[in-house]
Design brief:
It is a single chain. With 158 residues, the chain is an alpha+beta fold. The chain has one domain: Nuclear Transport Factor 2, Chain: A (Roll), CATH 3.10.450.50. The chain contains six helices and seven strands. The protein has helices at 3-28, 30-36, 39-44, 62-70, 72-79, 148-155, and strands at residues 46-54, 57-60, 82-86, 90-95, 98-111, 114-130, 133-143. Strands 1, 2, 3, 4, 5, 6 and 7 form a seven-stranded mixed beta sheet that branches. Strand 6 (114-130) and strand 7 (133-143) form a beta hairpin. Residues 15-139 form the SnoaL-like domain.
């Protein structure tokens, strides 16, 4: 292996690590931002044409994601105290400007002076590299309630 080949391999590995770190940072930003009610910042995690499909609610585009954060239902959740906690994303694929990851999460709520887990979910997330970095193009979320839909999502069956 020549010095140029070795350097090219090192550059490729560093670029891959930088992509993985950027994707992890993008995905793990969701919880703190959504708990703070930062609607514009949450919406910016998605591509302009990005889709968010969560438990029977399908949002298409940043405006609909922004509206979800501003909705009375979401404001009630965060107003009482909440933590959208994401486990570390497992990046399954990075190919050029496309990537796919999976992660699990819990939503912790505060009620009557106590914290409890209100929801556990699995998320399959597709991303695209844009001029503004990695953005979510499709995020599908299903509750981890033993359903076939959740198991299919975990297994990568869409």
């Amino acid at each position: 292996m020549s010095g140029e080949e070795s350097l090219a391999g090192l550059v490729a590995r560093v670029e891959r690590l930088e992509d993985e770190l950027a994707i992890i940072r993008k995905l793990t930003a969701y919880g703190p931002l959504v708990d703070a009610g930062e609607a514009d910042s949450v919406a910016e995690l998605w591509a302009e044409d990005g889709v968010y499909d969560v438990e029977g609610w399908r949002m298409a585009g940043r405006a609909e994601v922004r509206s979800m954060v501003l909705s009375d239902a979401h404001q009630d959740i965060i107003g009482g105290g909440s933590a959208h906690f994401f486990g570390p994303p497992h990046i399954e694929r990075i190919e050029g400007d496309e990537a796919e990851a999976i992660c699990e999460s819990i939503l912790v709520r505060h009620e009557d002076g106590k914290f409890y887990i209100w929801r556990a979910g699995v998320h399959r997330i597709e991303l695209r590299r844009t001029g503004n970095g990695w953005c979510v193009t499709r995020r599908v979320t299903r509750p981890l309630n033993g359903s076939a839909a959740a198991r299919d999502l975990v297994a990568g069956r869409k």
